[in-house]
């Protein structure tokens, strides 16, 4: 199981790296071709769309993966319900488009939401059989499916941005992603769904708390967009949206694909708590080791990164990016917890935790936004993340019957190595700024170089001093040794 999970995680990380590489290239190019207000307009539309989407946020695909032996009736019922909800939500989106335009005082939202509604209705017909890619841990086909959609959107968006130089490039790019997804789902998967609702009660019995959790997750993801868009307008929202997108790259863009690969494996171990717990600890250690230094490092280099990558128009995003990157680093401690709740079928615990975090975020947001503006929203996310980590860690330890010392054992080395890296990178950046030795790009290179050298050295030192225990470091060293052995054999031949 560990081998299958590792193989799947590698494919999903590759998928996410490819996806985010396209996204980063797209963002850097689009930031030069479009204005912040264009991004803010689309963020407004997507916020309302995500709100409407909650009407169908039952995550039936998760049910099909978590069940031991789903039948054709389950697949067909899931597809039929997805299609029905998509059509209903598309019509609701058309009806609410004028209200969204009035809410944001932005009349262009009416036509934007009409086009996006058409794409949503089309996506409802996507083949439910693609869930077998994850269920059977066939992540190579999952990669092809997901990356194919993303590549289509990337190409269409960039071409239209160059030609049109306005927000319609972003809108039609979204439409291209959804249309390509439907086409690929039938080309890659032989399953052909039929209309049926025979298994609706079984699916809804599991998905009820999932929907509650999805509603709360929507609030977490979109609260900042609603609050900033309503209070401050499109341009501040555009700054925040882009900063948030970059800030989450090291955390969610690694932990999310790992969780995607881990969930089917943990679901198979749901009746063997001891083995599930050990696999979970392996995943937590690996995730923190990779992503924690990246999140903290991003916070340290945020200001020169914005200057170099986005340009002068985006300078106000630098401090926002720094705070949100730290929030992402804090969240990493609990990044894998939700997948345990799903694997064990404990969707109620997931819903309760998400609701608690949303309540804390709302409180901090309304306290800090009036005084600090856009930066106040970022600070609210940081504080809410810190509180949520404490709550969900306690809940996970109890759910898995784990000892806290076990969790601490896989996390302390990367945490200490990240602290050491932060001290060195911060010192390098401060010295460079005081001596005025360079432009932003030189500071950026100096900070990245210091982090790349310091973190692995500190982590290796702590690992060796600890007696070389099992963990992410051992896996990496083993891989390096295997590669060197193969190279030596080839050289000898």
TL;DR of this structure?
With 493 residues, this protein is an all-alpha fold. Helices cover 84% and strands 0% of the residues. The longest helix is centred in the N-terminal third of the chain and has 33 residues, at 72-104.
What does this structure look like?
- With 493 residues, this protein is mostly helical.
- The protein has helices at residues 2-33, 36-53, 60-66, 72-104, 109-123, 131-135, 139-164, 168-188, 200-231, 234-247, 249-268, 273-300, 302-309, 317-331, 337-343, 347-372, 374-399, 404-435, 440-465, 472-492.
- Helix 11 runs parallel beside helix 15 (337-343) and helix 14 (317-331) packs parallel to helix 17 (374-399).
- It is globular and about 65 Å long.
> What's the average pLDDT?
83
Per DSSP E runs of 2 or more residues, the count of β-strands stands at 0
Assign a percent range to the helix content: over 70%
Q: Name the overall outline.
A: globular
**Model regions low in confidence, pLDDT < 50 over at least 5 residues:** none
Task: Give the percentage of residues in beta strands.
Answer: under 5%
Largest sheet: none
Give the SSE order as H and E letters. Answer: HHHHHHHHHHHHHHHHHHHH
First-residue to last-residue Cα separation:
35 Å
- What class do helices, strands and sheet pairing give? mainly alpha
Helices, by number, come to 20
Radius of gyration: 23 Å
